[in-house]
Amino acid sequence: MKYDYLVVGAGLFGATFAYEAKKKGKTCLVIDKRDHIAGNIYTKEQSGINVHVYGAHIFHTSDKEIWNYINQFAEFNNYINSPVAVYKDELYNLPFNMNTFSKMWNIKTPEEAKKVIQDQIQELHITEPKNLEEQALSLVGRDVYEKLIKGYTEKQWGRSCTDLPAFIIKRLPLRFTYDNNYFNDRFQGIPMGGYTQIIEKMLDGIDVKTSEDFFAMRDRAETTGDLTKTTLSDGTEVEYEKILFTGQIDEYYDSKFGPLEYRSVRFETEELEEENYQGNAVVNYTEREVPYTRIIEHKHFEFGKQPTTIISREYSSEWKPGVEPYYPVNNDKNNALYEKYAELAKAEKNVLFGGRLGMYKYFDMDKDLRAALDLCAEELA
Ligand SMILES: Cc1cc2nc3c(=O)[nH]c(=O)nc-3n(C[C@H](O)[C@H](O)[C@H](O)COP(=O)(O)OP(=O)(O)OC[C@H]3O[C@@H](n4cnc5c(N)ncnc54)[C@H](O)[C@@H]3O)c2cc1C
Questions:
Q1: Which of 51, 235, 300, 358 is most deeply buried (CB count within 10 A of its CB)?
Q2: Contacts for 288-291 with beta carbons within 8 Å, 24 or more apart?
Q3: How confident is the model at residue 42 (pLDDT cuts 50, 70, 90)?
Q4: Taking a C-beta distance cutoff of 8 angstroms, is the pair 11, 355 a contact?
Q5: pLDDT band per the 50, 70, 90 thresholds, residue 197
Q6: pLDDT per residue over 254-285, tens digit each?
Q7: If we measure between CA atoms, which residue out of 298, 76, 77, 70 comes closest to residue 201?
C-alpha cells in the first residue's frame, strides 16, 4: 500500500491530523505501538462504566471553535469538575474557595477569609522565598499550605517541598466566591459514552494498525528520494512520503543529546461490589502518608447508576525508559535539551512532529487539538 503520510500515534493529535488529511484527499496509515487507538484519552467500557484508563480526562476549553470541533464526534454531558480533598479526617472543597475557607476556619464572608490568609502570610515574614515551601506559604499562609498543598506536592514530585525550587509555583489561585468548579473555562464536559468513540470516528475509513512500533518499522525501512518503503510486523509492504511523528522526540533521535525527563503515573484499578464508593469522581489525598495522590471513581463522570463501581488509585512515580512518559518536566535543563532536538526536527524535510511527546509540552486536550489543527492548516493547505 502507498500512502501520503505515515502517522505515528493514534492519539488525539495523530487522529485529528489523519481526519483532516483525509478530508483533503490525502491518504494516511496510522500506527500505534499500543494495542488500542486513542492514546492517553483511551476509555474502556467495563461493567457499563467508561474507565479512563490513562487517568481522569475532563474536556474543558474557552476556545469556541475547538469546542464545536470536538462536539462533531461526541455529545458531551454537563459534568463540572469539583474535586474534594481529604486531609486526615477532614474533607475540603477544591479549588481553594469560600467553601474551603469556611470549613477550615468556620467563617462566612470573603473579608473574613482574606483577613485570616493575610494574617498568616504576615506572621511568616517571608520576603524572598528560597524554595517551593516558602513560596507557597507566602502566597496562601500556613493552613492551606499544610493541609492542602504540602503533602500532595511532595507526592507528585517525590521530594520534599523544601527541596523543590520556588518557581514551580508562580501563583496559587484563591477564589473568594462559593464556587467549586475547578476550571474557569467557558465549556466543559465528558463525552457521553467515553473518549474512544471520538478517535474511532476520526479514524473511520483510514487504515490503522495497532501493536505496531515505528522504530521496528524504521529499522526495516529503505528511503529512496521522497519515498520510504518498509514492512509492517505482519510482513505487509507499505510506502509513504511523509511522517507525522507523535511519539517522544528524543527517542526519534536515539536520545543523541541525552534523554528528556518525564514524570509518570501508576494506576491501581479495581471494581467494587458497591454502588457508590466516594460520592465524587475525583478525591485528592493531600497527606504525604497516604501513598496515592487521588482516587478516581469513573462512573461519576457520566452520572452512572450501575450496581458496581470502578475506582483507580493514582500514584505519582519516577520515569525511566520503558515506563509510560506522562508529564514532560519543562524545567530549564529539559527545555534547553528539547530545543536541540527541535532544531534537528526543523531541518527535516519529510518528518513532522506533533503532540505532547513530539513537542515535549504538557497539552490539555483542547491545546493539543488546537496545535494539531494549526499543523493541518500549514501542512495540508
Ligand atoms: C494523567 C493525565 C491526565 C490528563 N487529564 C487531562 C484532562 O483532564 N483534561 C485535558 O484536557 N487533558 C488532560 N490530559 C492531557 C491529554 O491526555 C493530552 O492532551 C492528549 O492525550 C494528547 O494527545 P496526543 O495525541 O498528543 O498524545 P498521546 O495520547 O500520548 O498519543 C501518542 C501516541 O503515540 C504512540 N506512540 C509513541 N511512540 C510510538 C512508536 N514508537 N510507535 C508507535 N506509536 C507510538 C503512543 O502509544 C500514543 O498512543 C491529561 C494527561 C495525563 C497524562
A1: 358
A2: 288/150, 288/151, 288/154, 288/155, 289/151, 290/86, 290/151, 291/155, 291/315
A3: very high
A4: yes
A5: very high
A6: 999 999 999 999 999 999 999 999 999 999 99
A7: 70
Residue 224: pLDDT over 90:
no
Distance CA 152, CA 87 (A): 10
When the pLDDT of each residue in the chain is averaged and rounded to a whole number, the result is 96
Which set of grid coordinates corresponds to residue 369? 487539538
- Pick the catalytic residue: 34, 294, 356, 370? 294
Neighbour tally for 243: CB within 10 Å? 18
Alpha-carbon distance 244 to 345, whole Å? 11
Model's pTM, two decimal places?
Answer: 0.96
Of the residues 12, 35, 40, which should be mutated to test ligand 1's pocket, given the most ligand atoms within 8 Å of the CB? 40
What span, in angstroms and rounded, lies between the C-alpha atoms of 287 and 108?
A: 26
- pLDDT tens digit sequence for 82-101: 999 999 999 999 999 999 99
Q: Is the CB of 58 under 6 A from ligand 1?
A: yes
Distance CA 108, CA 102 (A): 6
How many whole angstroms from 39 Cα to the centroid of ligand 1? 5
| Distance from residue 41's CA to the centre of ligand 1 (Å) | 6
* C-beta of 40 in contact with ligand 1 (< 6 A): yes
**Banded pLDDT at 330 (limits 50, 70, 90):** confident
Q: Please give the full DSSP string across 293-345, using - where no structure is assigned.
A: SEEEEGGGGGT---SSEEEEEEEEEE--TTS---EE--SHHHHHHHHHHHHHH
186 an active-site residue?
no
Note whether 152 and 84 are within 8 A (CB). Answer: no
Calpha distance 37→9 (Å, rounded): 8
Report which ligand 1 atom has the smallest distance to the Cα of 61: 11
9 close to ligand 1 (CB < 6 Angstrom): yes
- Per the annotation, the verdict on 313 as an active-site residue is no
User: Is 34 a catalytic site residue?
Assistant: no
* 263: CB partners within 8 A, 6+ apart: 156, 157, 316, 317, 318, 319, 326, 327, 329
**55 Cα nearest atom in ligand 1:** 1
Domains in the chain (CATH in brackets) are 2-75+190-257+327-379 (3.40.50.720), 97-168 (no CATH)
